[in-house]
Design goal:
By secondary structure, the chain is mainly β. It is built from 1 helix and 9 strands, in the order E-E-E-E-E-E-E-E-E-H. The strands form 2 sheets. Strands 1-3-5-6-7-8-9 form a 7-stranded parallel beta sheet, with no helix packed on it. The mean pLDDT is 92.
Length: 217
């Protein structure tokens, strides 16, 4: 089946030669702004801060596990091989972000706004995206088992080769979204949400249970 037309995701606008602009952070504080830096190989676990802003930053091999960063801003940021497990980023504002090979297990992005976001080869089991707004977002080759997108708003979202087993997507309008090469076994979804979604023949058989069909073989 032919894939739908791709949406152009804007990449982060990073300073030229940013890899040479080495930065260090000992901790995060309320209303702290980190700009135009390359930060690598550090642990910032169990941080608690409000309204932190990362702008024009690369984070590589950085751990922020179990941190609470409410109203976080990520503008023109790339995260590579970072650990954001159980990070509370409720209400985050995100624009031009790349997440590559990151651990996102249990991350809380409830009520977040994600624009121009590219997520690739990440582990987002149990991730929370409830009531979030996703516009021009591509999620590729990532694990999203048991994640929760309940009542989030999708606009120009692409999902390719992902594991969405047992994820919750009720209240999400999936029209135009191609799920045919992703695992949607046991996904929680309402019949009306599936209108216009693209699925494989095998997936269609599984989803037929939503309308009470019994497939005779």
């Amino acid at each position: 089946m032919t894939k739908s037309k791709k949406n152009k995701i804007l990449a982060p606008k990073l300073p030229k030669g940013i890899e040479s602009i080495k930065g260090e952070i000992d901790g995060l504080e309320d209303e702290m702004k980190i700009s135009n830096q390359y930060i690598s190989n550090c642990h910032l676990d169990y941080q608690e801060a409000k309204e932190v802003c990362f702008d024009g930053v690369i984070l590589k091999n950085v751990s922020l596990k179990n941190s609470t960063l409410s109203n976080l801003e990520l503008i023109d940021v790339r995260l590579e091989n970072c650990d954001l497990s159980n990070v509370n980023m409720k209400g985050a504002i995100i624009h031009r972000l790349e997440l590559i090979g990151c651990k996102l297990t249990g991350i809380n992005l409830t009520e977040a706004t994600l624009h121009n976001t590219y997520i690739k080869e990440c582990n987002g089991q149990f991730a929370l995206f409830t009531f979030s707004k996703l516009k021009k977002v591509k999620i590729e080759e990532s694990i999203l088992e048991y994640s929760n997108f309940h009542d989030s708003r999708f606009d120009q979202v692409e999902i390719e080769g992902c594991n969405l087993k047992e994820s919750e997507m009720s209240g999400v309008k999936l029209e135009g979204i191609d799920l045919s090469d992703s695992n949607i076994e046991g996904v929680g979804v309402r019949l009306e949400d599936l209108k216009g979604a693209v699925v494989s023949p095998m997936q269609a058989v599984d989803l037929s249970k939503l309308i009470g069909l019994v497939i005779k073989t």
